[in-house]
Each structure stands twice: as C-alpha cells, then as structure tokens.
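Researcher: We're teaching a course module on how sequence relates to structure. For the next exercise, students receive a sequence and then see the predicted structure as tokens, so they can try to spot secondary structure elements on their own. Here is the exercise chain.
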Amino acid sequence: MEEDKFKKILYWNLGVYFGYSLFNVIMFMNILEAQDTGKNTDFYFFLKFTLYCLPLHALIDFIFFIYCFIQRRHEIAKAYLLSLLLILLIGFPICYKFLK
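Model: And here is the predicted structure for the students to work with:
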C-alpha cells in the first residue's frame, strides 16, 4: 500500500513538473514568434514565471516532506524527498540551459 502511494507521489510530481515545463516551452516559442513579427512582448514575465515555478515546486515538496516526517509517515516523506531531489536534479540544469 505504501509503495503505491510512493509511486503515485513521484508520478504526480514529475507529471506536474513536465506539465509546467511544457507550458514554459510553448510560451517561449510564442514569444520568439511574436518578436520575429515585430510585436511587443513581455519577455521578462516569461523569465519571472520560469524562474519562480521550479523553486515554488521544490518548496511545496519540501513542506510536504517535513509534514509527513513529523507525522511519522516515513515512506511518504521519502517519496516527497526523492521527488524534491529529482525536480532539482532535472529542473535546474534544464532551466539554466534553457535561459542561457
């Protein structure tokens, strides 16, 4: 039972991460296309959105990790900690490379 929750937490966290990453890529492509046509676009909004999504996701995972650890639900806490590490391991290099 705990293993099912473990996998479910990991899958949901990675799904949410890839969902807003896909949204960021689509938004970035639209901004580039609009700039090519000469339209005025708010590129800084895109940068702020991109830079705030990943740390906010990591913070939420960390809060859930602490909460589950205090509640002595160690298997679920491990799932949140692992998803936090995966999000940071996958997210920051991609975000850095994407914004460079």
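Model: If you want an answer key for the exercise: The radius of gyration is 17 Å. The chain has one domain: 2-99.
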